[in-house]
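thought: user wants a sequence for this fold. calling inverse folding tool.
action: design(structure=
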């Protein structure tokens, strides 16, 4: 995010329902032209935060500033924020043209400008020529594109998307992810996108804001938040991974994590851990099967207990003893075709693939 004034500033926002705190002291800046995803499990607070930004809810305390203007307690109708919903929310009795034109009509724009803007919006979403159709005559993906066109046709400073692809099948979801990102990039829009789907967040976002228990648990670029999460919660949420507990220590000049089952786990020399209990992880795709005499910074010995084929990826569950299992992910190929349940293996990974985690967040 650049250093200019953010399009949206969320400052110490809390939302309570009686004794229940749905949001707790949340602060976040959204840069102009940035695509930020609010990600988290059900009940994490992401939809509550989106509703407060839209004006559907007001905060119990804290402030929101849209392009420098305090909107904390302004009604939704005067905030001028675009909104795209999961259920499309198109008006079935109106044509596609009138659905897209609706925000312009209520702003009393001239007819000529309405026609021009609707045409531009349809070109942008790659659906020219459907102006006279009704929503029910379109596919689910086409209806969602119309909903997006309606949200951006009046050129709002910020567009909110509340799980907009949740009603679509997997293949169409993937297509729409790229379409939404293309529209964002073409127009330089500021977007806040809500989802519980990790893959969707990683594919589309400039930054991800991971939420849990009404708090922000981690914020960062997709690559950073996946490869180097800051907490056990963050590491565990982003797909399959290997997470263990240990004690931060040193072995000579090198930082290590002492583990009573694995022995000292080597970490990158840039890590200078505070002595004490920590979490640590290594992603399954960073592990590899070693030849009998091959060396690596960290090595474990075990036996394959399960093989899971998932198309391009094959996952191996390796029993390393004492009830501990490690997951290894490999590209499906002939090279790993002979690895079956019961095969004894050595697995290893470099020290820089070990990520230390804050266990308390």
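)
observation: tool returned 361 residues.
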């Amino acid at each position: 995010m650049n250093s200019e004034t953010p399009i949206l500033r969320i400052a110490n926002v809390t939302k309570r329902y009686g004794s229940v705190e749905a949001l707790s002291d949340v602060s976040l800046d959204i840069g102009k032209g940035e695509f930020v995803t609010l990600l988290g499990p059900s009940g994490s607070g992401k939809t509550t935060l989106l509703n407060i930004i839209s004006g559907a809810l007001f905060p119990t305390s804290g402030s929101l500033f849209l392009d420098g203007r305090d909107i904390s307690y302004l009604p939704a109708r005067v905030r001028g924020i675009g909104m795209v919903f999961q259920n499309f929310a198109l008006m079935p009795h109106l044509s596609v043209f009138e659905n897209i034109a609706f925000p312009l009509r209520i702003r009393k724009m001239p007819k000529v400008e309405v026609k021009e803007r609707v045409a531009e919006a349809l070109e942008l979403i790659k659906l020219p020529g459907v102006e006279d159709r009704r929503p029910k005559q379109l596919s689910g993906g086409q209806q969602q594109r119309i909903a997006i066109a309606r949200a951006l046709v009046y050129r709002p400073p910020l567009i909110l998307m509340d799980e907009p692809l949740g009603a679509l099948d997997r293949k169409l979801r993937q297509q729409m992810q790229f379409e939404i990102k293309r529209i964002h990039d073409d127009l330089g829009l500021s977007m806040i996108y809500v989802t519980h789907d990790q893959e969707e967040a990683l594919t589309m976002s400039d930054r991800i804001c991971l939420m849990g228990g009404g708090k922000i648990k981690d914020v960062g670029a997709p690559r950073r938040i996946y490869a180097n999460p800051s907490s056990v919660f963050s590491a565990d949420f982003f797909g399959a991974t290997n997470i263990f507990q240990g004690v931060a220590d040193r072995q000579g000049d090198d930082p290590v994590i002492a583990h009573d089952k694995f022995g000292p786990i080597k970490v990158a020399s840039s890590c200078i851990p505070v002595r004490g209990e920590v979490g640590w992880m290594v992603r399954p795709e960073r592990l590899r099967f070693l030849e009998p005499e091959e060396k690596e910074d960290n090595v474990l010995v075990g036996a394959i207990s399960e093989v899971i084929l998932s198309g391009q990826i094959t996952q191996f569950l390796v029993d390393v003893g004492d009830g501990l299992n490690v997951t290894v992910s490999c590209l499906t190929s002939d090279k790993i075709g002979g690895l079956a349940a019961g095969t004894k293996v050595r697995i290893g990974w470099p020290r820089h693939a070990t990520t230390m985690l804050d266990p308390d967040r």
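thought: summarizing for user.
answer: Here is the designed sequence. The mean pLDDT is 90.
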